[in-house]
């Protein structure tokens, strides 16, 4: 129930290379914001700095207008859910959830009432007297959420909370997290390397690469208009065509071909990108590009072809009804409305 | 085939058990013998040797000092060992492996050498009285047990559970007592028991560090045997077996089955 502001966060371990450079981020009250990036991108480091488990080399962390940059972890009033759930093995579910309230010296009656209410919200009523090792992964996850939320944290920090669950449970748990987050209106930071997972539940996504934010925007914006080649690669664009020069306003030279796009860029475009499923397969004809299939893989919903074309090697998806053999030619066009020019 | 295999194993098991238990059984039997020297089988039954234990001041005072030293050395080993293990497993300490080896080194050196070295340094060079020297010697004996058992249990404990406690508003020391300690409790009790039993039974170190003013039970038994070969020692051995067994039972009750043999990871 608060705004979070990160200003120029930097982090260096020992004498090594910096893991965060000048990272700034503003999260509005009640939003769920994801930090998305590959391992080593600095997303967990950022989360641990917000929590106070790591001390940043420089920079400021503010919750509302409260500067918590140097406040010790146990006084920050933030809750964290860990990848391993980190439940207290010697305490029952009830005692696990009550732990944070006990530390706040809240009366026994109020503790019982609040814990019971939280167990009901998270669907754990029947498990109150169980021990963590007697619970399934999904149940442990709920206990971890209940324990974090019962203290009314100013921020909820989630560190890859779904990565230890199987695929089916992952989907239902992420909906559960979103439901709770909306219901309690808790400002939440969600760290993940799974693009689909974070797009599904986030208000905004910050894509991190090597300790820098590459793009911070709504999921739809990132999906349709990745700002950089890194973001594009991370969210499923497979084809990157290096631009040799500009022919006209909306036309670029790629290899010895001219390629048209619909959107213009402010500066000079360096690469054009397109998703494999946005390349259109057409019959042979004028203005149609052709290439030879070198690899074919089966994706279930489509075949993916690696095609040796005048534009270089391209990844192209084709329908499962009409498979094209390796070595055979494939004819296609690049629809101007799907080609994105990127400046970086 | 499998049956025969099992049969062989059974026979070996029985032989091993017999070899372990038979001598103890003989000691128990001889403690009731009427002969003036330890002999087997016995000719008559008496409890006189049990009464005789209490007429030997070396046994009574030896028991008292062995008990005190074993208790104090075990407690001190925990007070030094547990924080050391916590630091070694949770903080980024330079030369961590070096410290680990240092703490375990008393197990690598023959105890008789440790005893002699301590005698040379503490008693001869530093002129330390015998009692503190004995305590230091037994502390050295105990420390490796604490380090080894508690380290394995700390390594099994997810470090994130402590962090979770901190984020929920608990300071680091408080989290240690409410979260870490209850989860390594088994290994601490097991380490205490092992320390106590090893210190209580120790001869090599005590041999160098005790004297007329300060004797320990095992060395008192050794001394007694050199001069008298009568069943008083058997009777005393029976009492000590009962004492150790009582400790074991107490431990089972406190920690559940197998606490000693599973090196005390979280139950």
Q: Pairing-aware structural class of the strands and helices of chain B?
A: mainly alpha
The helical percent of chain A reads: 10-25%
Based on CA inertia axes, which overall geometry of chain A fits?
Answer: elongated
Q: What structural category characterises the helix and strand content of chain A?
A: alpha+beta
The main sheet of chain A comes to: 6 strands, mixed
The radius of gyration of chain B is 22 Å
What general outline of chain B do the C-alpha atoms trace? globular
Subcellular location (chain B): Cell inner membrane; Cell membrane
Transmembrane segments (chain B): 12-33, 67-89, 101-122, 128-147, 188-209, 229-250
Domain ABC transmembrane type-1 (chain B): 63-251
Keywords (chain B): Cell inner membrane, Cell membrane, Membrane, Transmembrane, Transmembrane helix, Transport
Write the layout of secondary structure elements.
The complex is a heterodimer of chains A (344) and B (267).
Chain A: E1 4-12, E2 18-27, E3 32-36, H1 43-51, E4 58-63, E5 66-67, E6 78-81, H2 93-103, H3 108-121, H4 137-149, E7 155-159, H5 167-184, E8 188-192, H6 195-201, E9 204-209, E10 212-217, H7 219-224, H8 229-234, E11 239-242, E12 245-248, E13 251-254, E14 257-260, E15 271-274, E16 280-281, E17 289-298, E18 303-309, E19 312-318, E20 329-333, E21 340-342
Parallel strand pairs in A: 3-8, 3-9, 6-7, 7-8
Antiparallel strand pairs in A: 1-2, 1-4, 4-5, 9-10, 11-15, 12-13, 13-14, 15-21, 16-20, 17-18, 17-20, 18-19
Helix pairs in contact in A: 2-3, 2-4, 3-4
Chain B: H1 2-30, H2 48-53, H3 57-90, H4 96-104, H5 111-125, H6 130-155, H7 159-167, H8 172-201, H9 204-209, H10 217-227, H11 232-255
Helix pairs in contact in B: 1-11, 3-6, 3-8, 3-10, 5-6, 6-8, 7-8, 8-11
């Amino acid at each position: 129930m608060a705004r979070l502001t990160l200003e120029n966060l930097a982090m260096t371990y020992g004498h090594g290379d910096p893991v965060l450079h000048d990272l700034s981020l503003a999260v509005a009250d009640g939003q769920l914001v994801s930090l998305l990036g590959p391992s080593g991108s600095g997303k967990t480091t950022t989360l641990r700095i917000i929590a106070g488990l790591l001390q940043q080399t420089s920079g400021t962390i503010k919750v509302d207008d409260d500067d918590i940059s140097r406040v010790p972890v146990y006084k920050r009033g933030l809750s964290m859910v860990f990848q391993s759930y980190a439940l207290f093995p010697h305490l029952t579910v009830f005692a696990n959830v009550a732990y944070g309230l006990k530390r706040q010296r809240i009366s026994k009656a109020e503790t019982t009432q609040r814990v019971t209410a939280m167990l009901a919200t998270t669907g754990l009523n029947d498990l109150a007297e169980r021990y963590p090792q007697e619970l399934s992964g999904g149940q442990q996850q709920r206990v971890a959420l209940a324990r974090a939320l019962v203290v009314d944290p100013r921020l909820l920090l989630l560190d890859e909370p779904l990565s230890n669950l199987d695929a089916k449970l992952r989907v239902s748990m992420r909906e559960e997290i979103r439901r709770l987050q909306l219901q309690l209106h808790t400002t939440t930071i969600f760290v993940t390397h799974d693009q689909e997972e974070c797009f599904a539940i986030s208000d905004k996504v910050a894509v991190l690469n090597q300790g820098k934010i590459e793009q911070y925007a709504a999921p739809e914006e990132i999906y349709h208009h990745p700002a950089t080649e890194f973001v594009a690669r991370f969210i499923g664009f497979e084809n990157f065509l290096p631009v040799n020069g500009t022919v006209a306003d909306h036309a670029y030279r790629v290899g010895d071909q001219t390629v048209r796009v619909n959107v213009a860029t402010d500066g000079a475009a360096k690469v054009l990108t397109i998703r494999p499923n946005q390349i259109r397969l057409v019959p042979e004809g004028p203005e149609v590009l052709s290439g030879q299939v070198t690899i074919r893989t089966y994706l279930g919903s489509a075949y993916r072809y690696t095609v040796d074309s005048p534009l270089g090697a391209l990844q192209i998806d084709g329908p499962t009804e009409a498979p094209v053999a390796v070595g055979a030619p494939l004819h296609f066009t690049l629809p101007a409305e799907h080609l994105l020019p990127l400046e970086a | 085939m499998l049956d025969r295999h099992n049969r062989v194993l059974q026979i070996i098991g029985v032989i091993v058990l017999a070899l372990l238990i038979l001598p103890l059984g003989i000691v128990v039997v001889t403690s009731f013998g009427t002969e003036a020297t330890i002999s087997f089988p016995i000719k008559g039954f008496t409890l006189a040797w049990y009464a005789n234990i209490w007429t030997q001041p070396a046994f009574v005072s030896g028991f008292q000092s062995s008990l005190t030293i074993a208790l104090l050395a075990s407690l001190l080993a925990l007070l030094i060992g547990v924080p050391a293990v916590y630091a070694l497993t949770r903080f980024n300490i330079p030369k961590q492996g070096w410290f680990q080896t240092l703490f375990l080194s008393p197990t690598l050196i023959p105890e008789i050498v440790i005893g002699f070295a301590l005698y040379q340094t503490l008693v001869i060079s530093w002129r330390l009285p015998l009692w503190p020297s004995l305590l230091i010697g037994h502390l050295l004996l105990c420390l490796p047990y604490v380090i080894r058992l508690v380290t394995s249990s700390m390594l099994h404990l997810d470090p994130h559970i402590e962090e979770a406690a901190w984020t929920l508003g608990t300071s680091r020391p408080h989290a240690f007592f409410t979260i870490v300690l209850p989860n390594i409790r088994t290994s601490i009790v097991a380490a205490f028991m092992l320390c106590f039993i090893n210190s209580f039974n120790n001869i090599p170190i005590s041999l160098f560090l005790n004297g007329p003013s300060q004797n320990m039970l095992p060395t008192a038994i050794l001394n007694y045997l050199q001069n008298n070969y009568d069943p008083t020692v058997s009777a005393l051995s029976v009492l000590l077996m009962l004492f150790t067994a009582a400790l074991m039972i107490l431990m089972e009750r406190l920690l559940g089955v197998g606490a000693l043999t599973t090196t005390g990871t979280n139950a």
